[in-house]
């Protein structure tokens, strides 16, 4: 595995605390997730390659830099990953978006896939997989494995909160993946929820139970 990047920028940590608070309402929760996604995508794209280009400013000719690397695809893990897509697209408006539907069995905690739709040219794109929570890691690994069927380009996994168990799972099965997270929490409880976590991100995003 490449790295686990814990993004400890003050704005990221401040907004994470607001998300954790059980009193934060749906509208605010949704907006903060989008804001955090912008900040985290900014950090996760620091290694995008550039190339020089000659341009004319209103004053003189000069050499500037533009993005030269592969195009990017965002793959949202349904349903909570949807809350992160708009924020990432704010920074990467030309990115295309795929969706993976996977649910975790409440008793066995094993992932089951029910939907998948990826950009047609996914094989030519670097991939950012988005899911607010990395808990057991089963859903993340299943998503990575599915994407790997079609793409051998660079894959990054962005989450807001990670558990050590989920990181260990990705390290075991996906050694070439970089994880970006705002925090690594204590671990999982008997229901495989992250502690202290922020609850069920999907429910808090969409006001469901």
What descriptive keywords fit this protein?
32% helix, 7-stranded mixed β-sheet, 209 residues, Rossmann fold, 6 helices, 29% strand, two-stranded antiparallel ribbon, alpha/beta, globular
Give me the CATH architecture, please.
Answer: 3-Layer(aba) Sandwich
Q: Write the element-wise H/E pattern from the N-terminal end onward.
A: EHHEEEHEEEEHEEHEEEH
* Number of domain modules: 1
User: How would you write the strand order of the largest sheet?
Assistant: 1-11-9-7-4-5-6
Helix-strand layout with pairing:
Blueprint: E1 4-6, H1 10-20, H2 26-44, E2 50-56, E3 61-67, E4 72-78, H3 82-91, E5 96-104, E6 111-117, E7 126-130, E8 133-134, H4 138-148, E9 155-158, E10 161-162, H5 164-173, E11 178-181, E12 187-188, E13 194-195, H6 201-206
Parallel strand pairs: 1-11, 4-5, 4-7, 7-9, 8-10, 9-11
Antiparallel strand pairs: 2-3, 5-6, 12-13
Describe this structure in words.
The longest helix has 19 residues, at 26-44. Strand 4 (72-78), helix 3 and strand 5 form a beta-alpha-beta unit. The protein is globular. The strands form four sheets. It has a seven-stranded mixed sheet. The chain has helices spanning 10-20, 26-44, 82-91, 138-148, 164-173, 201-206; strands spanning 4-6, 50-56, 61-67, 72-78, 96-104, 111-117, 126-130, 133-134, 155-158, 161-162, 178-181, 187-188, 194-195. Helix 1 (10-20) packs antiparallel against helix 2 (26-44). The chain has a single domain (4-206), classed as Rossmann fold (3-Layer(aba) Sandwich), CATH 3.40.50.2020. It is α/β, with parallel strands linked by helices and 209 residues long. It has six helices and 13 strands.
């Amino acid at each position: 595995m490449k790295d686990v990047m814990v993004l400890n920028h003050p704005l990221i940590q401040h907004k994470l605390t607001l998300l954790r608070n059980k009193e934060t309402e749906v509208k605010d929760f949704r907006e903060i997730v989008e804001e955090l996604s912008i900040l985290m995508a900014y950090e996760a794209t620091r290694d995008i390659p550039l190339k020089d280009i000659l341009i004319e400013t209103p004053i003189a000719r000069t050499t500037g830099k533009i993005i030269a690397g592969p195009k990017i695809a965002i793959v949202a893990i349904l349903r909570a990953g949807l809350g992160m897509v708009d924020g990432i697209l704010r920074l990467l408006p030309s990115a295309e978006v795929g969706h993976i539907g996977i649910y975790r069995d409440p008793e066995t905690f094993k992932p089951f896939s029910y939907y998948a739709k990826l950009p047609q040219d996914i094989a030519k794109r670097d991939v950012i997989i988005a899911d607010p929570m990395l808990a057991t890691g089963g859903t993340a690994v299943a998503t990575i494995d599915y994407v790997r069927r079609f793409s051998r380009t660079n894959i990054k996994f962005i989450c807001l909160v990670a558990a050590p168990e989920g990181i260990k799972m990705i390290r075991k099965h996906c050694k070439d993946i970089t994880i970006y997270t705002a925090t690594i929490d204590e671990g999982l409880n008997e229901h495989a929820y992250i502690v202290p976590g922020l609850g069920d991100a999907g429910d808090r995003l969409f006001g469901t139970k």
